[in-house]
């Protein structure tokens, strides 16, 4: 009896003690956010047997989310890059497209152009009536914080660097408080930044530019594709052809290595963040299409470049101390020629939605102009001065009448293949319905968005050659999301997620504040506890 009594007492004592748990996962020294411009998820599966480098490493050693879909329109570069490290929809971030018509400035602007700043490390040009990708740039049009911004708030000594061929690809993921964002100037062949970040290039960046690597690529031929010529036409920037070549990505990877070494990323007492956007896949994909041998070759080359980058990171920091996340800013539609060959619906639209609406409103309500140029093929801006003056029988014409007439004209033009038209009034009041209606709402920010938002039928595109992306259909929305590093459980995860989930997940892993506009969830299913 004494033995039983002693056993009961012992059991009670042990039950009252705290349970021992596994030691917490160490915090990473470096986070590397990689975004491939125009890279559909099916590129991972279609070319899987030919990946033996970085993509293979991510897919075998990391968490592979097989059903990551963007949930907004448009699906374009600036929007995808802004979501990547903010988790915010355009409705909150204000990044409603690559470009939009700014009613306050009364001109078309890009997502990052900023004439209050100057280019650092390249050539500054005079102001133009429209913002272009060559203008000085900053993140001022981004209304929300990014992971890097929150990291700097929690750890002021952390270093945040963004790199891309495109200014928007470097700036929007890295955010407002980055040490610098660097992009490629096709006039000088240099990586440049702007006075928003610094008054002069860091010594390591200037030394990289002094190597003049782009010079060797201008006349270099793409093995297997002799028809591609990367020399710039007369009157164009000297290095204007580099972006649409495999060598654009090689420059990005080499500059990323220089940044890791020069900034000593991952070698500080607080975590650092590097965002890298591989832009050249997008340029090639627009011209050749997703089913082309060129796109396949670019995907394989990207796999090899990632392996090279990972090796450098392992040498400098140790991959066991690094979280890597890879995604894409959007997918891409098949070319109409491919759709025709495979008996699928699709094609190039004939005519212009702007012209159709302009003609219809002029016929019904009198002389315009009714359309303010600058919206593009799927977003139309109505001329508010014309609307304010418009009368019929001495009575003012309401915006509702104008919207209705425009919708009717668009649906009555079969050559445009318009599936839906959402008006400003509808989106301001809120529309309900399927995933397309939700995507239109997620992409609408009233101060910047247009007055008519068009959704074309699947497979139909503006233009006359190549292909593009902008739609709510899966070929434009379905992208990779791959995580690898400490605290991450490798495996395939088939539940539907959004790229918006990346930023809050990383914030949780870093024990920092979630970016201010994030609408994503934490991907707890992959986290080791």
Mean pLDDT reading: 93
Class based on secondary structure composition and strand pairing: alpha/beta
CATH architecture of the domain at 350-416 and 418-456: 2-Layer Sandwich
Shape descriptor reads globular
Distance between the termini: 42 Å
Beta-sheet strand percentage? 15-25%
Note poorly predicted spans: 13-20
Got a strand count? 20
Largest β sheet strand count, sense and barrel closure = 10 strands, mixed
Strand order of the largest sheet: 5-8-7-6-9-1-10-19-2-20
Number of helices: 20
Name of the top-level CATH class of the domain at 350-416 and 418-456: Alpha Beta
Query: In the CATH scheme, what's the topology name of the domain at 350-416 and 418-456?
Result: Gyrase A, domain 2
* Fraction of helical residues: 25-40%
Radius of gyration: 25 Å
């Amino acid at each position: 009896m004494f033995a039983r009594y002693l056993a009961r007492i012992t059991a009670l004592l042990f039950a009252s003690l705290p349970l021992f748990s596994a030691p917490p996962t160490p915090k990473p020294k470096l986070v590397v956010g990689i975004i491939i411009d125009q890279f559909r998820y099916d590129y991972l599966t279609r070319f899987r047997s030919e990946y033996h480098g970085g993509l293979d490493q991510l897919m075998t050693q990391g968490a592979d989310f097989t059903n990551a879909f963007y949930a907004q329109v448009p699906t374009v570069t600036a929007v995808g890059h802004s979501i990547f490290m903010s988790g915010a929809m355009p409705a909150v971030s204000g990044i409603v497209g690559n470009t939009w018509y700014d009613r306050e400035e009364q001109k078309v602007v890009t997502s990052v152009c900023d004439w209050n700043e100057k280019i650092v490390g390249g050539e500054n040009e005079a102001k133009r009536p429209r913002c272009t990708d060559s203008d000085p740039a900053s993140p001022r049009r981004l209304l929300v914080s990014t992971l890097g911004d929150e990291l700097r708030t929690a750890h002021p000594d952390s270093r945040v660097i963004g790199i891309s061929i495109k200014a928007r690809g470097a700036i929007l993921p890295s955010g407002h408080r980055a040490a610098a964002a660097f992009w490629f100037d096709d006039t000088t062949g240099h990586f440049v930044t702007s006075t928003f970040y610094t008054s002069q290039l860091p010594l390591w960046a200037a030394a990289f530019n002094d190597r003049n690597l782009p010079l060797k690529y201008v006349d270099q031929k793409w093995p297997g594709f002799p028809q591609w010529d990367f020399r710039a036409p007369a009157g164009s920037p000297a290095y204007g052809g580099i972006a649409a070549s495999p060598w654009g990505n090689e420059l990005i990877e080499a500059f990323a290595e220089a940044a890791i070494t020069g900034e000593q990323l991952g070698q500080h007492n607080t975590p650092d963040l590097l965002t890298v956007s591989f832009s050249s896949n997008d340029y090639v994909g627009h011209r050749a299409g997703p089913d082309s041998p060129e796109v396949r070759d670019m995907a394989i080359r990207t796999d090899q470049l990632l392996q090279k980058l990972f090796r450098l990171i392992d040498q400098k920091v140790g991959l066991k101390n690094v979280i890597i996340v890879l995604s894409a800013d959007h997918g891409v539609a098949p070319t109409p020629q491919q759709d025709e060959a495979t008996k699928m619906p699709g094609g190039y639209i004939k005519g212009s939605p702007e012209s159709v609406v302009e003609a219809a409103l002029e016929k019904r309500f009198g002389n315009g102009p009714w359309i303010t140029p600058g919206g593009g093929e799927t977003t139309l801006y109505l001329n508010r001065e014309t609307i304010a003056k418009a009368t019929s029988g001495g009575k003012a014409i309401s915006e509702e009448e104008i919207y209705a007439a425009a919708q009717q004209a668009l649906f009555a033009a079969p050559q445009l293949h318009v599936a839906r038209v959402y008006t400003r009034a509808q989106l301001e009041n809120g529309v309900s319905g399927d995933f397309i209606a939700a995507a239109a709402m997620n992409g609408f920010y009233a101060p910047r968005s247009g007055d008519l938002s068009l959704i074309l039928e699947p497979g139909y595109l503006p233009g006359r050659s190549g292909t593009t992306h902008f739609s709510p259909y899966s070929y434009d929305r379905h992208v990779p999301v791959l995580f690898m590093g400490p605290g991450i459980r490798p495996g395939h995860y088939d539940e539907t997620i959004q790229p918006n989930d990346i930023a809050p997940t990383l914030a949780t892993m870093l024990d920092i504040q979630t970016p201010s506009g994030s609408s994503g969830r934490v991907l707890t299913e992959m986290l080791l506890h």
